[in-house]
Prior knowledge:
By secondary structure, the protein is of the alpha+beta class. The protein contains two helices and nine strands.
Amino acid sequence: xxxxxxxxxxxxxxxxxxxxxxxTATTFALERPCCIFDxxxxxxxxxxxxxxxxxxxxxxxxxxxxxxxxxxEQLPTAHSYMTLETAAAAYACSxxxxxxxxxxxDTVCGGQGGRDPCNGPLPSPGPYRVKFLxxxxxxxxxxxxxxxxxxxxxxxxxxTIDPAPVRHGSDVVVIASILASLGAALxxxxxxxxxxxxxxxxCHQDSGTGAFARRSYRTHHIPPALPQPLPPGCxxxxxxxxxxxxxxxxxxxxx
Length: 255
């Protein structure tokens, strides 16, 4: 019998930091393991990700060869599959690879029946458990521990979405109308009070000016001027334009 694969202490996990799309209805993100498989893998080995429903992970059996890898299409019946086949060099310490793996991110591979492992969308919220498996030419060589259960987000059913806008009750409409009326009345009262105060101030200034204008100002050393009689033949024009002597009529035109 082949020797059992080495059990590595690494536990796969979802990134603990905030990440857009970390958990969706059909996918989840995983931290990429780095420097985990260097002592157990060589250049010809590949790293796989085993995905199983949380209650079926204990019954998962490592495949003896690549030909026996459970495909994505059998997840509803076998409750597990393997995906993300990657060269071991991509997980080396010196590799400059993305720090995040996306499980379930391939939306076009499912149902094609191809030999390549499919990373299709997950059909339900789960929960799921995952582990990494080092596969060599003669079968499994090393494996990590199973992750903690990973529960996806639940997608809202279209039938539960109400397309009609929310209608407020009649009590809310009445209260809103009363508040609007009170606000308008308050604004009008403030404007009236402000206008009355300004008008009173202007009237007070006008009354003081008029009283000053009606006061007679007389000097003690200049006697008042007496009215002078008009010269003969002088008549007064309208007030303020002075006097002028009437003009004699012009000569009659010659016949």
